[in-house]
Design goal:
Structural class: mainly alpha
Number of strands: 0
Strand content: under 5%
Oligomer: single chain
Low-confidence stretches: none
Number of helices: 11
Distance between the termini: 29 Å
Number of domains: 2
Mean pLDDT: 79
Shape: globular
Radius of gyration: 24 Å
Amino acid sequence: MSEMLPARLARRLVQLYPRNWRTHYAAEVLDLLQARVPTWSDVGNLALHLLYMHLHPDLTLTGAETLAERLATLMRALRSSEIAIFGAFVAAVIAWLQFGGLVDGGPYMPLTDSAGVWPFFGVSPANGVSAALAVQSAAVDLAFLAMLAGGVPLVVAAWRRTPARRWYFLVPLAALIGAVLPVPIAFVLRGPVATINLTFTTPVTDAYFVWFVGLAAVSALALSRVIAGGEPNGKLLRYTFAPALLVTLALLLMLGATIAWGIAAHQDYPQLFDHSAITLGHVTAASWLFDVAVMAAAAVVAVFATIRGAAARAATAAR
């Protein structure tokens, strides 16, 4: 009975695919399912690919393509998923920087019991604000390490594969200079009291936040464009899927820790947290909701991109 259940589920999943896909591939897949008893792994691959077909219908081919063309299409889909995860990572990090700018040096710092020590060292588990902040920092570290593990090989491959587009790598460097340069300029013009950060406390910080987000967006687009150039390297993309999955998990952990931080702050420090203004110079309910919304949007994008990537990866493994 248990051996027949995967076969019934597999045939049912084939019937749920888009009509155009069923026209070209259903008979072939059903013949394969008839030739050998499908496993639970086959059912999982079919389910992932089914979800991907409905989320990304342009992957439905005409049936006239060669095997190499089909694999190239799947590889491009996997690459686009990993690029989407990179974009989600950038958005979540900006929200984290904004959140951290409101916590560091503000009235919450003496209450965290961590004194800036790396997560889980010197943190009191009984202090909800401190514990949530430590988990958030650990999640950010994990996301950065996973992004480096998966992103550096892609960037190196793009550098070698598309020499005509190497000038795109100058964009992040120029953006870094553009992000750092306002700080000494403000110091010269306004003196040591000048503050440039990503908070919403003054018109200067508001302008800098917009400037910083713009620079980050341009940098992300430039890197995404150069990585997307040329034919994808299937072996490399299959390797980088694992770090991309870790990035997605880290973004979900970051989101959960930020939500937990807000709940703890509301319970323990309502005099600081329970405000609707975002210009007080520390985290309030309003600024926390803004950061949570950005992190949640980034996490949703990363989750769907991971599902699409997993489906494309499973499809390539099955061919």
